Amino acid sequence: MAETDTLSAPLPIIDIRNVSKTFWLGEQKIEALSGANLQIRKGEFICLIGASGCGKSTLLRIMAGFEQPTGGEALMWGKPITEPGPSRGMVFQDYALFPWLTVRNNIAFGPKSQGRSTGEVKEICDRFIEMVGLQKFANAYPHQLSGGMRQRVAIARVLANDAELVLMDEPFGALDAMTRERLQDELLEIWERTKLTVVFVTHAIEEAIFLADRVVVMSPGPGRIDSDNRLILPRPRDVASPEFNEIRRDLSARLHSHHAKKAA
Amino acid sequence: MVDVTSSAPAAEEAPPRKASLPHLGKARDFALAMIVPGLLLLLWYIATTQRWTRLIPTPAETAEYMVDFAFGGIYDDAFSATLHIHLLASMSRVYGGFLLAAMVALPLGLLIGRIPLARKTLDPFFQLMRPIPVTAWLPLSMILFGLGAKSAFSLVFLGAFYPILLNTIFGVKNVDPKLFEAASMLGCRGNAQFFRVVLPAALPSIFTGLRLGLGLAWFVIVVGEMTGVPQGLGAVIMDGRTLSRTELVICGMIIIGIVGYLSDRVVMMIGNHLLRWSPTHHG
């Protein structure tokens, strides 16, 4: 890898340097991730895409601090990520909301943990409940909400905590197509408004092309980064346009090429 | 009590209270619930008036005796107007033993569920002790605590202890690991998670334990009061047996049933309120 000129290039928010992760399943050694390199700039929207077992979730969990790499290093603003923290918010596929807390109190969980005053917490909650359009449901419990609403709460919960980096692990995977599209639009709108950095794991090519600045294609066995594709496609993106389809064909070919290699 | 909300898992609007004729629905539920007890009462009535058995009093005689047991003025024997004394004695043992069991079992359960060292040290011991029925402890508790109230108290304690302990351990051990991850990425780490994640997440299970424990406390009280205590519903039932006064036995049984039921309802109402967030915890 070429030496980067640290003076002229701004520090990346996330710097993944030759990261690998192995773990043991009984006697069997699993290489979940092998020699991954990835730099993410502030404000970028990155999609990690690949077949199951390609290490995309592992990479995300290392960025979150839930897991430590067994080789290489994962840095945020140049410092090693050693534990989960409020600057990196995770949105889980199965929401992981606190079922005993109302929508408002789920969103308040982070700010309260930071020791904000009651007044501040209320103001923050109001702002983010409004941002995700759940004013009517502020006092409802998670089990009373639909899947899409629950995921909105999960997103608001992370944003309310002043997260700079939002890590999303197939967040819309369990939702129906209509809700999924609406949430994609809403997420982009929030991203454009707040200048967040987003790392979004998905296995749907269309979703990745619709959302991302860069699509990082990963492949399994051992999990590694195959290619890093910067999309030059104006927003808002039209899924029916020829340009969109061209990119889709291209990425699809990349995704399937190593399947063919493996099968051979 | 709160069945209404649980029926709408993904309501688009916050579920409104059903306002249409709630009393009619309740009356219907009550009528349905009364069918089986009514039939049982009828069977009892027919069996005793048709002289299928001479040893059991008729429902009317029992009711009359119940009034005398509660207020006196009919038979005026040793048991007339003594219900409140016996009831109070039993209740103090049941709730005393139950509260003491909860006070010991809850922290112990939290400890065993949360700290591996505590689990490895204490769990095998409790697993060994648990299969021993409370009744098997009776002779030993008489030796240890003598004949009387203390012995009854200790049996109630033992009866309520295990369900509370085991359900607390279960609740604490089975917190969804995702919730710990969610809490830690929101800035709540380490010991702070105990009160903000573990305890609320384990609450449904803890409540199940408390409810079972209180039920068992009422269950055990008759056995506990066999040990020569002068007062208590269990003592009344045992006295009734030795004096061949079946109506006394039946009165004691009915009162334990009713009071046990009411106390379960109270626990459940508290539970339904505290656990109104839980879709699976309504009774």
Summarize the model shown.
The complex is a heterodimer of chains A (264) and B (283). With 264 residues, chain A is α/β, with parallel strands linked by helices.
Describe the structure.
The complex is a heterodimer of chains A (264) and B (283). With 264 residues, chain A is an alpha/beta fold. Chain A folds into two domains: 44-68 and 81-87 and 165-264, Rossmann fold (3-Layer(aba) Sandwich); 98-163, no CATH class. Helix content of chain A is 36%, strand content 25%. Chain A is built from seven helices and ten strands. Chain A has helices at residues 56-64, 103-113, 118-131, 147-159, 177-194, 205-211, 242-263, and strands spanning 14-25, 28-40, 45-49, 71-76, 79-80, 88-91, 165-169, 197-202, 214-219, 224-230. Chain A has a six-stranded mixed sheet, with helices on both faces. Chain A has a four-stranded antiparallel sheet with strand order 2-1-4-5, with helices on one face. The longest helix of chain A has 22 residues, at 242-263. With 283 residues, chain B is mainly alpha-helical. In chain B, 72% of the residues lie in helices and 0% in strands. Chain B contains eleven helices and no strands. Chain B has helices spanning 3-6, 22-49, 59-71, 83-114, 116-129, 138-145, 149-173, 177-185, 192-224, 233-242, 246-274. In chain B, helix 6 (138-145) packs across helix 7 and helix 7 (149-173) runs antiparallel to helix 9. Chain B is globular and about 70 Å long. Chain B starts with a helix and ends in a 9-residue tail after the last helix.
Radius of gyration of chain B, CA atoms, in whole angstroms:
23 Å
Q: In DSSP terms, counting alpha (H) and pi (I) runs of 4 or more, how many helices of chain B?
A: 11
The low-confidence parts of chain B are 1-16
Task: Please write the string of helix (H) and strand (E) elements of chain B.
Answer: HHHHHHHHHHH
Q: Label the structural class of chain B.
A: mainly alpha
Strand-residue fraction of chain A? 25-35%
Structural class based on helices, strands and sheet pairing of chain A: alpha/beta
How many beta-strand runs of chain A? 10
The oligomeric status of these chains comes to heterodimer
Strand order of the largest sheet of chain A: 6-7-8-3-9-10
Helix content of chain B: over 70%
CATH-level-2 architecture of the largest domain in chain A: 3-Layer(aba) Sandwich
Question: What is the highest CATH level, the class of the largest domain in chain A?
Answer: Alpha Beta
Rough outline of chain A: globular
Shape of chain B: globular
Gap between N and C termini of chain B: 7 Å
Largest sheet of chain B: none
**What is the largest interface, and how many residues per chain?**
A-B, 37 and 32 residues
Mean pLDDT over all positions of chain B: 87
